[in-house]
Design brief:
With 428 residues, the protein is of the alpha/beta class. It has helices spanning 3-13, 42-45, 61-68, 72-75, 108-112, 123-129, 141-155, 235-244, 282-297, 319-322, 328-336, 352-357, 375-389; strands spanning 47-54, 91-98, 118-119, 133-139, 164-166, 169-172, 177-183, 190-194, 199-203, 209-213, 217-221, 250-256, 268-271, 277-278, 304-308, 346-348.
């Protein structure tokens, strides 16, 4: 292996030092925040999706994922092969135009984006927009789709950029772009126990119990912590924060999860601090967001940020409900992030409406996932615009870390007055 390649891989993917100091100090009471929920991102709350047929797809998924080193994510699970856009079906690209009524919000994107259309950029434009940036995508299989889309949009086309890495991450050395993926289905730390049963089950959107193949484990999720331990972010999130905490380069953590929290299933349990079992839904979704945001604001530099994408809509979620209302899970996410505004580097960018506005043909057959190339590329186009807009290369936009090494205090609430989401279909 060439020395440059070896050095890059060691620097980017080696585990953090065990002797790294923790963030000391007492908790400070937060007094500046009076909201009970984070602001809804008006830029994506409503608008129009335009579709445009292309003679050839934006990228050839099979060839592109192999070139990007990400094909292992597809080949290791036969069901993921269905994510690749059928070669005989006309390819479609999407664009998003926010509603004219969008008002200026806290983010640079909202202040500058009224009525502006966002198209899926070319690979050259993506590499330019994310130059000298590190993107860490965190979450479940829908987050994996975001990661695969980003890898394709960056690597394929316009000269096919050279890359270094494997399926867990890559570097484009000529452009200073780093891309990593962290699997964290629940956002927070979980424990597993062995399940000897042959079958598991979940409750679908119609309230019917459906049998599924057992993974052999039961997930025990404690977003409120336990009697003896505080709630913790997923191990992969903590490792990424420690590995990148001294990096002055722009770093963006992107969170996309929630389907595992939105419906009842036999292989997942949620617990309160007293170890009492609690229900799935908006309340637990809110608490996971609060735990993650608290960990992030105390581990990120002034040039770092975190973007929570909100719950991805299901195939039967029509835009009339998603784009006009305040969906319970979305409201739960905003409630969990209420104490962590953009000034702290925490952003809520709900992609539900743009994705719900995309046609049904954007979905892979009998799945809550979408074709690649396709709608995930549009989500990444909007995300890239936000990252580009909020770049802290302008010193005036740089945030100040917690003073004196103290941890910033957040609202790790115990109760949320939100309605539980209805039972939903299984998601992998």
């Amino acid at each position: 292996m060439a020395p440059l390649r070896l050095a890059l891989l060691v620097a980017l993917f080696s585990p953090p030092c065990a002797s790294k100091k923790e963030h000391p100090g007492k908790q400070k009471k937060r007094t500046h925040e009076s909201r009970t929920t984070a602001p809804f991102p008006q830029f994506t709350r409503d608008g129009a999706v335009a579709t445009r047929a292309e003679k050839s797809p934006r990228y050839d998924a099979d060839k592109c994922f192999k070139r990007a080193g990400t094909m292992g994510h597809i080949s290791e699970n036969p069901n993921r092969g269905k994510w690749i856009h059928p070669p005989r079906r006309p390819s479609t690209t999407y664009s998003w135009t926010p509603a004219r009524s969008v008002s200026a919000g806290e983010s640079c994107l909202e202040r500058a984006g009224k009525g502006r259309t966002i198209d899926v950029p070319s690979a050259a434009a993506m590499r330019k927009a994310l130059r000298n940036h590190t993107i860490v995508v965190v979450g479940d299989s829908l987050a994996l789709q975001s990661y695969l889309s980003l890898s394709a949009l960056l690597v394929c086309g316009d000269g096919d950029a050279a890359r270094v890495g494997d399926k867990s991450g890559m570097v484009l050395p000529e452009h200073g772009v780093t891309l990593r993926f962290v699997l964290a289905k629940f956002g927070v730390a979980v424990a597993q126990t062995t399940d000897s049963g042959k079958d598991a089950w979940f409750v679908d959107s119609k309230g019917k119990k459906r049998t599924i193949r057992s993974s052999g484990f039961v997930e025990h999720v404690r977003p409120w912590g336990s009697r003896d331990e505080k709630p913790r972010a997923a191990e992969g999130v903590v490792a990424a924060l420690r590995a990148l905490e001294d990096r002055e380069q722009e770093v963006t953590y992107v969170f996309n999860y929630g389907h595992w929290l939105s419906h009842r299933r036999s292989d997942v349990r949620f617990y309160a601090q007293d170890d009492a079992e609690v229900s799935y839904g908006a309340g637990v979704y809110a608490q996971t967001h609060a735990v993650l945001a608290d960990e992030l604001v105390n581990g990120m530099r002034a040039s770092h940020r975190a973007v929570f994408l909100g719950l991805s809509p299901w195939p039967d979620d029509g835009p009339s409900r998603i784009c006009k209302g305040d969906e319970p899970m979305s409201r739960g996410a905003r409630q969990g992030l209420a104490a962590y505004p953009p000034a702290k580097g925490i952003f809520f960018l709900d992609m539900a409406c743009p994705l719900a506005r995309a046609p049904k043909s954007a979905y892979a057959r009998k799945s809550d996932h979408r074709f690649l190339p396709g709608a995930p590329d549009l989500s990444n186009a909007i995300l890239t615009r936000l990252i580009e807009c909020e770049s802290s290369s302008d010193p005036r936009r740089r945030r100040q870390p917690p003073a004196g090494g103290e941890r910033a205090s957040g609202t790790l609430g115990r109760n949320f007055t939100v309605r539980e989401a209805p039972a939903r279909k299984n998601s992998t």
